[in-house]
Amino acid sequence: MDPSGGCPHAANARLLARGAVAPVVLPGDVEAMAVIGHDALKEFLSHPDVAKGATHFTALQEGLIPDGWPLKTFATVQGMTTADGDDHRRLRSLVSKAFTTRRVEALRGRVEEVTAELLDALEVAGDDGKKAVDLREHFALPLPMGVICELLGVDAEYQDQLHHLSNQIVATDIAPEDAMAANRDIVAVLSAVAASRTEKPGEDLTSALIAAREEDGDRLSGHELIGTLLLMIIAGHETTLNLITNAVRALCRHRDQLELVLYGKASWSDVVEETLRWDSPVSFFPFRYPIRDLTVDGTVIPRGTPVLAGYSAAGRDKAAHGEDADVFDLTRYTGSATRHLSLGHGAHFCLGSSLARMEATIALERLFTRFPNLDVAVTEAELPRHASFVGNSVQQLPVTLR
Q1: Cβ–Cβ < 8 Å for 235, 352
Q2: Distance between CA 244 and CA 113 in Å, rounded?
Q3: 280-319, pLDDT tens digit by residue?
Q4: Could you tell me if 279 and 344 are in contact, meaning their C-beta atoms sit under 8 angstroms apart?
Q5: For the chain, how many structural domains are there in total?
Q6: Which residues contact 184 (CB under 8 A, 6 or more apart)?
Q7: Is residue 161 part of a domain?
Q8: Is residue 306, in this structure, part of any structural domain at all?
Q9: What's residue 125's pLDDT?
């Protein structure tokens, strides 16, 4: 795996041509596997003999993974993404109340309000359409970051710092000392958030998690509280940020598809789903571990091997999506069920999927309704990519509004 990230699709196509499961080498020469075929990944994500807990990570348990390894946080953070069985159900049940259909729908008005405010500010930053403006910085980032921080009761003063530290947490080319510093700093910030909500509880999710912990000491440990907040901050804004960014890039490159939506022949929900498939916000997500030697699509994955879920590859798997899987086509799912895995599958399916979909749908509809001639100001090759093979997007998106 290239630690510097870059566009994954060409490499994914080469891997898929060889099979649905691929041996890969992670930073630090750590041997791993990636499940990249759609059907194989769907099977693997819900297999009863696949675990998330790091006690099943053989190399880690044998002391072969050093501190500062850029992917160590994904394995060792205490929260839903590294829990199995009863622990996973306990942690997920505490958070799931914030993401019921009713609670998410209740956020719609606030999402629309924030979107309108950001579009006004975007127009000012772009000097009424006279100059290019970074859509990612001024619109795609502050929308999901603002919403998730309100949901968690995180004060605005922490938002920029949390985004910066989140980027370092998911980076795969980061130096060991920088990785350890980023982890220390984000734990310190989230501990300050928890302390503030303990002193002054509100109607936010952090206060509810703290209350659950105080009512029953076995419900949520201190490490689990911080780990849960870490997960919610990163997953609650990075993925939606990438989704909005990637959708704008796709629509600007495929003006015929944009016209379908603007003329009512496709929906903004279609845009979100096709972007999730065609250019998944997450490329390769760490980690799962077979608890026994496991054969997936004819390939043996040895017990205790760290496995990446290859969402960006599965989204363009021609065996599942047809020979035109590389084509961005908003009519692909017309009249049929959506078939992509970019929000996960099985017990660990993305808890915030409804919120992410709503935020992205509102953001894209309002953006292109107000600026139907919006376009990316540079070529695709000029857009700087994320320095990570986990996240899949670009670092900046300069656009002209008119």
Answers
A1: yes
A2: 17
A3: 999 999 999 999 999 999 999 999 999 999 999 999 999 9
A4: no
A5: 1
A6: none
A7: yes
A8: yes
A9: 92
| H, E, C per residue of the chain | CCCCCCCCHHHHHHHHCCCCEEEEEECCCEEEEEECCHHHHHHHHCCCCEECCHHHCHHHHCCCCCCCCCCHHHHHCCCHHHCCHHHHHHHHHHHHHHHCHHHHHHCHHHHHHHHHHHHHHHHHHCCCCCCCEEHHHHHHCHHHHHHHHHHHCCCHHHHHHHHHHHHHHHCCCCCHHHHHHHHHHHHHHHHHHHHHHHHCCCCCHHHHHHHHHHHCCCCCCHHHHHHHHHHHHHHHHHHHHHHHHHHHHHHHHCHHHHHHHHCCCCCHHHHHHHHHHHCCCECEEEEEEECCCEEECCEEECCCCCEEEEHHHHCCCHHHHCCCCCCCCCCCCCCCCCCCCCCCCHHHCCCCHHHHHHHHHHHHHHHHHHCCCCEECCCHHHCCECCCCCECCECCCEEECC
Whether 3 is in a domain gets the answer no
Q: Residue 80: which domain range?
A: 9-400
Total residues found in the chain within this entry: 402
- Token pair in block for residue 81: 């993404």
Please choose, from the candidates 41, 39, 33, 47, the residue with its C-alpha nearest in 3D space to the C-alpha of residue 1: 33
CATH number where 316 lies: 1.10.630.10
Report pLDDT digits (tens) over 245-258: 999 999 999 999 99
- Spatial CA neighbour of 246 closest among 143, 393, 401: 393
Q: Return the sign of the alpha-carbon dihedral for residues 21, 284, 281, 191.
A: positive
What does the block give as tokens for 401? 């509004």
Whether 383 maps to a domain, the answer reads yes
